[in-house]
Design a protein that fits this description.
There is one protein chain. The protein is of the alpha+beta class and 146 residues long. The longest helix is centred in the last third of the chain and has 25 residues.
Length: 146
């Protein structure tokens, strides 16, 4: 299992992109597979532990993530997560937003995923690629709209 990476340029500021991805409770309105989000714990006023319920067509998948925020450089902000528990075996990743210009941002999405079921590698790769592409393009659309 290895980390996959996707990048896209977004016509919005770094802060706008970061604020969009950190607005977890809005995900069901713009991330098509996410049906429910519950913030279970906060640290320093920010969501730290978040539970998700996803529509995986044949069943609902539940998992919980712990988040960490890197905000020390306003021209490069990131959100990382580690798996706490749920229906998957492992999910870790990050979104990093780096300023290209004041209203243009490079968004990098990294993801390591283990579904916990025996799936041929090429099928898992296709699943991850599609999920990551949907997520990053939905983020782009949302950040550029608002």
């Amino acid at each position: 299992m290895h980390e996959e990476r996707k990048e896209v340029e977004i016509s919005a500021s770094v802060k706008k992109c970061f604020d969009t991805i950190c607005d977890f409770t809005s995900y069901p309105t713009w991330q098509k597979t996410i049906k429910e989000v519950t913030i279970l714990d906060k640290e320093n006023g920010r969501p730290a532990v978040v539970e998700y319920k996803l529509d995986a067509i044949l069943k609902t998948i539940q998992y919980t993530l712990h988040y960490n925020y890197k905000e020390d450089d306003p021209k490069k902000l990131s959100l990382g997560w580690t798996y706490v528990g749920g229906d998957l075996k492992k999910i870790e990743g990050s979104y990093t937003f780096k300023e290209i210009s004041p209203q243009k941002t490079l968004a990098t999405y990294c993801l390591e995923l283990d579904l916990g079921v025996n799936v041929p590698g090429f099928i898992l790769k296709k699943f991850k690629d599609n999920a990551m592409e949907d997520s990053i393009m939905s983020l782009k659309k949302r950040a550029e709209q608002n």
